[in-house]
Amino acid sequence: METNILIVDDIHPVMLEKFDEAGIAYSYQPDISRAEAEQIITSYSGLVIRSKFQVDSAFLNFAPNLRFIARAGAGMDNIDDEAAGLRHITLIPANEGNRDAVGEHMIGMLLSLMNHLNRADRQVRSGQWLREANRGYELKGRTVGLIGYGHNGMAMAKKLSGFDVKVLAYDKYRKDYSDIYATEASMEAIYQRADIISFHIPLTGETKGMIDEQYLSKFEKRIFFLLGARGGIVDVSAVLNGLDKGSILGAAFDVLPIEKFPKLAEQSWYKDLISRDNVILSPHVAGWTFESYYKLSEVAADKIIAFLR
Q1: What is the pLDDT of residue 76?
Q2: How far apart are CA 256 and CA 232, in angstroms?
Q3: Does the keyword Magnesium apply (predicted)?
Q4: Which three-class secondary structure state does DSSP give residue 67?
């Protein structure tokens, strides 16, 4: 069967240009539904998706000729990797494409937390000039713990290098990964030394709900908490309890366990979360800049072309 790729999500035109140059056949259908994709996927050997729908075992039953699934994004948690593996389908992520965007966004959230920028902005706009109440913290001299040291973790460490901080990185699946930006460390060392904790790990069966009361209780210093990975790895109520106790000084969430309204507003912790001045939220956009939109599609296309060759 000749290569024929079904693209079911909005992607940057650079991917289509690269496929045209390489002579690769494709069908670009960004408005297609899952049900419609199920009806035609048997005719395709490749699938490109972002977050349109879950590519689960049931969907793959309609795709006997599929050789690969590429995601123009970071992470593959909307794809059943076990089911794909059983069918010998190669998974192609594009994590490199938005690593710089994620690093910059999370540092921006951290600086805003440490300097009370969101709260101070609201106060000035409402006629309050409260200098002492908005005294901030400096980043210099602090220890940052990165959980996960893949593309995003490494980009975060590189961008922190100009702030005169110590970066400790823990990655369960790597060895000997110390570099000029971060030092390989055990979780015990991070529990003891970290002033700031930032997560750069995928959502898997192992990491789902990992950040809970027990996990957070192990940090010996008061921390700033950053989450720009996947919302499913955190128990939000545990973070709120840490904020109440003062063991967490501030928290930034670009991702949450539920990311759609009105369901998000129905969560038991939602009103508490949005009521706090020391919490910053953004709608899962850390890795979604104008530049990363291009780079994610470019990286995915290059990897697909290399795979086919």
Answers
A1: 86
A2: 7
A3: no
A4: coil
